[in-house]
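[job 4471] stage=fold_predict status=RUNNING
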Amino acid sequence: MKQLKRSFSKLLYKGHRHIGFAVSLITIMLSITGIALNHTSELKLDQHFIKSPVILDWYGIASSTHTKSFPLQKHWLTQLEQNIYLDNKAIFTSTEPLIGAIITADFIVAAFRHRLVLLTIEGDLIESIAKPGLEKIGHQNALIFIQAQQRIYSSKDQLLSWQESKFQPQHWSSKSPLPTAISEELKQDSREQILDLERVILDIHSGRFFGQYGVYLIDLSGVLLIFLAISGIWFWLRGYAKRHLKNINKQ
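[job 4471] inference complete, writing structure tokens
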């Protein structure tokens, strides 16, 4: 019986030691990711985006192909997802669909479904003007035209006032395919604005980053940590009992 107890203790000790070494690696990972997640706001994890093609491919995130572009002489105004670009520069975001854009000598006007956005030639925001029911925009000479709720209006004072017009421009703003070089650059930029660092750290912490088996591994680690805690308490109590008995015998 005594030999059996010794064998059990020896086996338990070996298991405690080897499992402890293996689980310690996962425990370190869980500790680091857990601390990071507790300080998401301070570290701004949701504002840092993953740009690594390897990780983006791992998540199956592909480049968006849904672009809407309008030529502006030598420039292009493009909507890709919620991002608005002037050429290859992201200038602001919008959930409304871009329906057209025009450029004058002094400024750019971007038309959305329910507003007009006035921009500098460099793409800086000047003003946003509410205009419900916009359908299209165009310009001719010094006049800017819009069609809203099936009526045509014109402005000759930089969008300060509008008058209903019986005339319309020869050409309304219309979509055109982007040059390939700009298109590829925007698609890559858009792809890199989807996956934030907080999501990746959270997935690593839960094991989901490694797929279904990763979740099972984290679950198994939890079970093994319980085993380590119980076996550790058992060894401590066993050692405490031996020391206590030894002190009694000395007395």
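[job 4471] summary: The chain has a mean pLDDT of 83.
[job 4471] exit 0
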